[in-house]
Amino acid sequence: GFGERKAKAERMFSLMDGFLKNDPFSLQKDILHHVEYTMARSRFSFDDYEAYQALAHSVRDRLIERWHDTHIYFKKTKSKRLYFLSLEFLMGRSLSNSVINLGIQDQYAEALNQLGFEFEVLAEQEGDASLGNGGLARFSACQMDSLATLDYPAWGYGLRYEYGLFRQIIVDGFQHEQPDYWLNFGNPWEIERIHVTYEVKFNGTVEEVDMNGEKVKVWIPGETVEAVAYDNPIPGYGTKNTINLRLWAAKPSNQFDLEAYNTGDYINSIVNRQNTEAISNVLYPDDRSHQGKEMRLKQQYFFVSASLQDIIRRFKEAHNNFDELPEQVALHLNDTHPSLSIAEIMRILVDEEHLGWSKAWNIVNKIFSFTTHTVVAEGLEKIPVDLLGSLLPRHLQILYEINSNFMEELKKKIGLDYNRLSRMSIIEEGAVKSIRMANLSIVCSHTVNGVSKVHSNTLKTKTFKDFYELWPEKFQYTTNGVTQRRWIVVSNPSLCALLSKWLGTEAWIRNADLLTGLRDHVDNTSFRHEWKMVKRLNKMRLAEYIETMSGVKVSLDAMFDVQVKRIHEYKRQLLNIFGIIHRYDCLKNMDKNDRRKVVPRVCIIGGKAAPGYEIAKKIIKLCHAVAEKVNNDADIGDLLKLVFIPDYNVSVAELVIPGADLSQHISTAGHEASGTGSMKFLMNGCLLLATADGSTVEIIEELGSDNLFLFGAKVEEVAELREKGGALKVPLQFARVLRMVRDGYFGDKDYFQSLCDTVEVGNDFYLLGSDFGSYLEAQAAADKAFVEPDKWIKMSILSAAASGRFSSDRTIREYAERTWKIDPCQCPF
Ligand code: H53
């Protein structure tokens, strides 16, 4: 009974010495314990990497204590849980973040000092966890941090890819991809749960059998794979709460293929078993197109099936009536990637729990919410029916049934408008009959979220217009956010100290709205001076990094102008490079006197191109070609430098963002769903040069358009500009720059022709030509502001002061209250 269990637990606890202590001496003992017993290194000789590992293990022990207590508490209080389902999480490094969130940063620094190590040096030993591509994946990571910090009873679910996002290396200006086998040296942050495993099934057939006089469908699968859980504790800041990110890895199932053994094909049966592990091997490196790849579909279902089995098991432990599911469980679909969850949960409730279709459906359509990060209809995910039918035959039947019910209901509402019916159908007829994953997600979710105001308007008026007219109340938007714990506290310690000093409190770390308090000090000269010094320090850090990475020496007096993000035509890195060419061309044609007035610039570009994205790769090459010419032109010297930062990832971002004076967010209006990079720069007092796209529109609301450099066509104007096509008036400067590239001024003449074609009049879909004039004006305005340091610093301070609204804490609170309907549940210390 309970008494017995409690007595046993108390005895166990008495044997445990109580909880781990956090004074420097105890920390040292624990670190050395791990050197000796976990790493099996001698305490007389271990290097920085081993010291990092031992240190990480001692932090992990502390995380585990809180993580256990948090889950026991969630269980005890029976609070409604949120399950955040995402195929991608870009967590980056964990050490500094964990130690800061645990609140034992100073103790660790002292403990290590006494052992002769420096915390910052050991922290550099850690590699990134890059289980995602770009914005969507880093946003997931920020949301996990906020969920933990705000005490929400949440779980993240994802895949434990053995190869994360490829490493980018540059050879001769070309991108090459190298595998990121990130688990090579072990991962101290995860906990393998060998007893938390589920079987995931594929293929086979569906048969109809008689069960108590009723005909039921039974799936007889052909292949079974096992999913093993790996848990990653996510600590909140200023709270004991430590939530879980559970990632699944595929292992061969223990169900032996008896036939193979009996026929003596032992070797082949082992080889086949190993193939099943491939499911969770590798992250797909394409940022937004996932069309019709069998392995990708397998990954999605593998992830969905393991997660839902786990969630349902946990629910059943505490409840015996599925009617309670909507009050106990919120399932969040992070984009359409996990949307097979809908079919899977229907299958579980109908085929395994025998609830009957309509009862199951009534439950299912109350538990899902869906966030779409996509803008254009062509970018939406589709799965060929043939592929799905052979891999998941029962799920295909379920999807057909959901669709036919939906179509019936729709006909009653809108009549026989066949065009509209076919647009809204979950099944797309056509050359390749496919499942439209977005339509499925909309039909089955109670809420459809956009990620910014502009994005949400596009969804309502274009992408999902038909659905919006049917269910206006389903459509909401919650502007994205980023966590100030990672993007200020971890990445910019000097700014962090300055903020706390002038705000007179550290409370902004949990409540970013307090940053508006900086406005009270903008005219204070000593504050401004300190602000300037912090920026300079961060520029110094960045300059050192640039020199080591690319050998280019840059002047700290120059304006550091940064564009870092995935390389995409719509993000218009090419516009940036053309602007740089134009600047170079102007400098070359200037006399000495005029040159003296020019603001020196260091232009910094970084980002990965999807391996199969030719144009994006050409943009990277062009960037290097221009850099080669400009940086080696002694006549230009420090007036202009261009550097490409290779292998841009979370930890590189932590270094680059604090050191930026200006950052560019220059997508063609209407193409960036939100954009979260801009928010990180804003928090770090970097000025923005931007188009009125995505969340920039909301940033303008907070910051005022005078405090950033805005340019370019507005969303409403873009369609018209495109229609005009060839008749557009493109400035002469643009034509000249284009000519220079075409004529081989930067070498590789032939190679760049097709890149130039993409922006030629009549072909310039992303409107580089028509935005070029106003882009140059915005750049000139930035130059002008930079030579008035007082004005510049004021704008920099006001940027940080306006960034509070873009904390993911605000995002998560909005989702929790409006969409997920979950309450905070703080585990007592
Ligand atoms: O998601 C971010 C947005 C950003 C958007 C990005 C995204 C991906 O990273 C991948 C696929 C996709 O459809 C969208 O491009 O604008 O800020 C988080 O919402």
Automatic annotation (TrEMBL):
Designated name of the protein: Uncharacterized protein
What species does this protein belong to?
Trifolium pratense (Red clover)
Full-sequence range covered: 174 to 1002 of 1002
